[in-house]
Amino acid sequence: MKGLVTVGQLGHWLSGCSLGEYQRAIDYHQQALKIARDIGDREYEGRSLGNLGLAYGSLGEYQRAIDYHQQALKIARDIGDRAGEGASLGSLGLAYGSLGEYQRAIDYHQQALKIAQDIGDRAGEGASLNSLGEDYGFLGEYQRAIDYHQQALKIAQDISVRLGEGASLGNLGAAYGSLGEYQRAIEYNQQALEIAQDIGDRYGEERALGSLGENYGSLGEYQRAIDYHQQALKIAQDIGDRAGEGASLNSLGAAYGSLGEYQRAIESHQQALEIAQEIDARYGEAETWFHMGNNLSELNQKSDAIDAYRNARQLYEAMELDAYVQNCTEAIDSLS
């Protein structure tokens, strides 16, 4: 038992400290899983499976992550581990959200939320509320997203969880940015950035920098936006966050496009597209195709632009994001 806990904790530390050593974490969790199975410890078997799911999710291997979380969920239910069940449900929600299956993600997060409330797990409750806010934000229900993030923020502050507080502040910044309240968004994202830097949360720092880049880009301060996105890109590459790397490249492409540097923009989008397709990040891929269409249109490459918009529309349709589908249709019609 002692060896199992030590190995498992090493893997958890490596995957949770934003050091980017996900493969090393996987090795530790695999060892912990083998020990758990050898000694017949079902609880630690489930935990090791869940940790492997989290590690593979961090690498952008979402389907593989789902497989591990499903195994962990089954064990948690078999042995009556309600906390483990809630954790597995929440992790499945995160994985499906990363695949752009937001309604399915919401279903999992709502189940996780109920369990957290039933067993008095305040940290788990806050995490579930934050995740629900993110899902509804992707679906364009920004006020609903803000309500969830405000609840999550209050819990994080009540129980002094700075990581959760930073995540909630960042999510509020994203939601207000989507509503066009950019100065308010900047204030939230600056607070999130300060917390991330204070506690050494590299992933949170990357997200906050990227969000600030989006905010300043929306205000027309494109060079300032590029500076933030370049900082976010470096962190994403340092910690092995492939999804974040793709998002930063995509945002850089949008900023370069706004400055009229269309070829440079396309190059950034092409790199982002390769990553999105590699990790099956459908939302990121759709967003990249749409931005690429904009830049190709500016270069008067109408046929290629239409193809890019059609690719984006097909992906948005699969995710049932009607407003984005309409944007693609209008872009295509304007070139036809």
UniProtKB/TrEMBL annotation:
One of its GO terms (cellular component) is cell cortex. Transmembrane segments: none annotated. GO terms for molecular function: G-protein alpha-subunit binding; GDP-dissociation inhibitor activity. Gene3D superfamilies: Tetratricopeptide repeat domain. Keywords: Cytoplasm, Repeat, TPR repeat. TPR repeats lie at residues 46-79, 86-119, 126-159, 166-199, 206-239, 246-279, 286-319. Pfam families: TPR_12 (PF13424). The keyword Heme does not apply. It is found in: Cytoplasm. This is Uncharacterized protein. The lineage of its organism: Bacteria, Bacillati, Cyanobacteriota, Cyanophyceae, Pleurocapsales.
